[in-house]
Amino acid sequence: MTERTDLAKIGLTAELIGPLQFPNPIANNNHRQNLQEHSSKLKNHIAVVATNTHDLKETGFGSIETCRFFYDALKEKYQTVTFHVISSISSLNDIVTSRPDLVVLCSKYFLDVSNNTKTWFSDYFSKHAIAFTGSDRNSLEFDSNKGKAKTAIQNHGIATAKFFQACPGQFETEDKLPLFLPLFVKPIDAANGNGIDENSIVRDFESYQSKVKELFESYGADVLVEEVLPGREFTVAIFDDPETDSRSIMPVEIIVPKNEKGDRILGCAAKQQNHELLRTITEPTLSAVSELAGSAFTALGVKSFGRIDIKLDAEGNPNFLEANLVPGMTPDSSYFPRACSLQTGSKSKTNRPSAMTHSEVALKIVELGLNRINTLQQVG
User: Fold this and answer.
1) Both ends of the chain: CA-CA distance in Å?
2) What is the CB neighbour count within 10 angstroms for residue 207?
3) 308 near 296, Cβ under 8 Å?
4) 254: how many CB neighbours lie within 10 A of its CB?
5) Are the C-beta atoms of 361 and 329 separated by less than 8 Å?
6) Is 322 exposed, middle or buried (0-12, 13-18, 19+ CB in 10 A)?
7) Burial readout 355-375 (b: 16 or more C-beta within 10 A, e: otherwise)
8) pLDDT 10s per residue in the chain (380 long)?
9) Which of 319, 142, 335, 157 shows the shortest CA–CA distance to 238?
10) CA distance linking residue 361 with residue 66, whole number of Å
């Protein structure tokens, strides 16, 4: 007599036994391909952290859509990539709970509008022992405070336009001003040309008073007043990897159309219109601008990547303008990815950087962040 098979003894139940199934070759091939693609990706968990910066003075990488591009680029190389739009402290706690290997910081802080308090992402993740891309809070302060950055640059003997900080009513007459007119007046803590327009160059005391009052009331802080530098303007994208002792310095010139007053002012309107021309530069300006940008990068303690803005004085000497340490990353308009894409070096030669696509820029930022983790582990 044939013995019946006891399904329970082999770990099955009758409910699991259905009609006879034949394998689907197409489904199996797709499954096999997905497994191969997954296994070929790097086994890291990368969390991309963004926040809505629409109403902020500092916008970091840019819109949520721009930040999501990082997610799309990274998931092609890494097994686990998550995207987080931060709107509360609890959403930050969720990231900590998941313990990612690296967090991509698309902006510097989260602003709680209910009580007007900032939570700096770099501080928050440092506190919870989670690695993040870019610079720490100390260096990021130089991005958020242009006067502080220029003071640090001066203390390191690096050229920058003479400047002072001002508030309304501080100087009663023109002869009391620390510097001679004309002067350039701009917010001390805004980005993307916010607060800069055709009236930013002031040529008389009344215009000076008006612009200082306007910016002070709009941004709630002292304003930065500088000498007017009449020369060419440059922006320099930099990648830095201490582990491999390599630094890529990628300068480009920015040419802004003249306004009705005949000035070339890189303000908010000019950037939104995206009419600026970016072009590579040649020697001897190339070496002079690159050297100053690299010196400023080091002096400010910048980590992994950042952008340094430079302008020539009347004698053609480069001067530091400001640092952008969470620079814009919008593909068709932001200066950092555009500067990377315009490089003309060869990958077979190391003297000049080669051009990079926007996806390669995103991957490089994460690569540098992971390299820092390896360096810290080796030191530890």
Assistant:
1) 70
2) 17
3) yes
4) 21
5) yes
6) buried
7) ebebbbbbbbbbbbbbebeee
8) 444 434 333 333 333 333 344 456 555 555 555 544 556 899 999 999 999 877 777 789 999 999 999 999 999 999 999 999 998 899 999 999 999 999 999 999 998 877 778 899 999 999 999 999 999 999 999 999 999 999 999 999 999 999 999 999 999 999 999 999 999 999 998 877 788 999 999 999 999 999 999 999 999 999 999 999 999 999 999 999 988 889 999 999 999 988 888 888 876 666 666 778 999 999 999 999 999 999 999 999 999 999 999 999 999 999 999 999 999 999 888 999 999 999 987 654 456 789 999 999 999 999 999 998 876 555 55
9) 335
10) 13
Report pTM: 0.86
Distance (Å, whole) CA 362 – CA 243:
19
**Is the CB of residue 318 less than 8 Å from the CB of residue 234?**
yes
Question: CA-to-CA distance for 285 and 116, rounded, in angstroms?
Answer: 44
CB 187 within 8 A of CB 223: yes
Give the containing element (helix H, strand E) for 376.
helix 358-379
Say how far apart CA 325 and CA 142 lie, in whole Å.
8
Residue 57 structure tokens: 């003075």
The burial class, CB within 10 Å (0-12 / 13-18 / 19+), for 123 is middle
Phi and psi, residue 349, nearest 5° = -120, 145
